[in-house]
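Help!! Second protein's tokens look totally different from the first
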Amino acid sequence: MGGGSFTYISDHGDKLSKLDRVLVCMGFMERWPTASVLALNRDASDHRPILLSTIPSDYGHIPFRFFNSWLELPGFSDLVKHLCQNFFFNGPADMALLVKLRWLKNNIKAWLKAEKVRSDGEYSVKKNRIQSLEREAELRPLGDGELNERAECISFIMEVDRRKQMDAKQKSRSRWALEGDENSAFYHNVINANISNNRINGLIVNGVWCSNPVLVKESFFDFFANQFVEPMNARPAVICQNLVSLSDAEANILVEPFSLMEIKEAIWSCVGDRAPGPDGFNFKFIKKHWDMFQGDFLKFFKSFTLVGT
């Protein structure tokens, strides 16, 4: 709830309470997942009026997020391999890895958009074909070819629904969820709850509630920029006698270049569903296509070691 922390204040001002519930119908959050509640100014009444808004706030580009179900799509791995083999960038290693992931992201999004149109069309065709065959089965026995066709259509429908359920589990982050659980309403409720809890509808800027996305983002930028300002221009040196120091051999180990095995072990020790950065690719994607990325990571860590020395 924005606009205020409480909705009621007693005449003496010593009792505060909050009434921020709105009666809605079933399926409300599925249709308006970005709905927000705003407490308006209190004028004649001792209660703040509550405004329910379903107008989405446009905070700009939606961040890219990789879903594990994409790895099971026919042709996806071949697409990534083809794109990586045709990528070329002449520049610093860190910039090359950044540009490569960005280029992959743009091409994958375009491919997924076309694949979704194709898959949705085939899904509808096969679903209608199942209904048509079942109507025929009520009139006459189906032939072997028709029975096999129905089984193939059902298998395709179940596979598409399974991938959708994988996406729902990944969105809800329900690590306790059992494979094959068909309680999709549970996952959608968790997803909508996560969206509602993580969404920022506005901020109090200079004592005034502000819901303008541009001003909200500027306030966040200014706040965190001030957190990282160096408070001291010159810090005193640390001078201590008889400190324990590393030997030359130990010091040389610290500055040795990272090996490919060390980099791979560090990546394989990470959870696959987590994204290492704002690019949206998780470690499962990197592990799956490690042959396409190991050279980029090795160059990146090599340049990092050279800069550090």
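Here's the second one for comparison:
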Amino acid sequence: MLKNLQFSIAERPLHMEGRILPAPELLMDAPVQPREGVWDARRRLFYRGADINTWVVMNYNPRFVDQRSTETFITKLLHMADEKGMKFSEPVAAFGVWKPCPEQDFTRLKQEYSNLQLVLVILGRGGDLYAHIKRTGDTEVGILSQCVQATNVTAIKPQTLGNILLKINAKMGGINNVLSRTGMPMILERPVMIMGADVNHPSAGDGESPSMAAVVASYDRFASKFSVEVRPQPHRVEIIQDLKEMTKNLLRSFFIYTKGHKPERIVMYRDGVSESQFQEVLSYELKAMRTACTETEVDYTPGITFLVVQKRHHTRLFCEDRDGVGKCKNVPPGTVVDSGITHPSERDFYLCSHQGIQGTSKPTHYHILWDDNDMTMDDIQMLTYSLCHLYFRCTRSVSLPSPAYYAHLAAFRAKVHISELSERDGDGMTQEEIKCVATVEQKNALSSKLYYV
């Protein structure tokens, strides 16, 4: 068939030279050096441990997890938290609930414990309880929640406990790890706001539900803490319609946290945009960010660098003679290709920032649409690679910069809220009704100061 179509395929893949960026040095209680995209945090304290004084355990699966298993899990969790430098007190209460109702349960807890910080929920198998819990905690009651599968409570593994504490510490305002002074890109030495944006669209077959746009922005000097803005918008529209107002709110958060300082530079990582939409995104979204800055202060014009992050492509990188990393022999983390297979006139590059655990690693394609900051390709590549080491859920470098990853998570969480709303209020809700309810609930979540992704 190929011969009849007059196709010809080379016997060998295209051969080119790549570069391997040095992994940035990280800082916990002591410097940590990643090796092949992984670092050992088992004997290290968090850079900044959170203080958790008032929290509750809700066992929504008492048939499978008895009281003794729950107490054992809590004891080991608190012991490891102490080893990590967290001030994690004993829970003020632990309930076994046979008929879960998150709305009533969370409301009662909020009334009974006015300073409640966290609810740890033990889930059962299957069902849509997770969506109910997150919607109630995020948008109605204003309580942070951490869900744990019942099997992880009965079969306790140190690695699982460590992963749970990574998430709890970040949710409660702690910092797991930061870039050390020796590994910090130069752009982070001055006030800078690192942003990420993504839009989550309804699943196939859904022709009415709105798309959910999420934008996150850092507000500390470590690029480790992020404010979040989420908005519903018309069905399957990729361009973020309310980006101007979202950016203004994020700038206000930056001002408040830094006590009046303004970011001198802004770097945006925009996820989910195809090449056919580059010009449209640039003309609308970059203009919206500019307008947000000038409306905040007349003469405020920070330099903006706008990058598009793409994972949906068909480019793969292989080591010559399969001399790679890991059992699958993938290219090492930090591998950069910025010639040969890139655009002839525009600035773009491929970066494989993670270690492929299974199968062939897929590099991430970065396209620089705009750069007022006059950053060199080396500066942008090193900044991007460094941000891939700041994702709070694991002790590995990930395939996306942390702002883009957090925006993806925030958009997905908003989609969970919308889907739960549709099931709760029936399929008869129109798109405008869903959008109205979603907007109100998202504002309630923001007013509760749940700024962490």
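Reply: Different proteins will give different token patterns, so don't panic. The CA atoms of residues 203 and 340 lie 36 Å apart.
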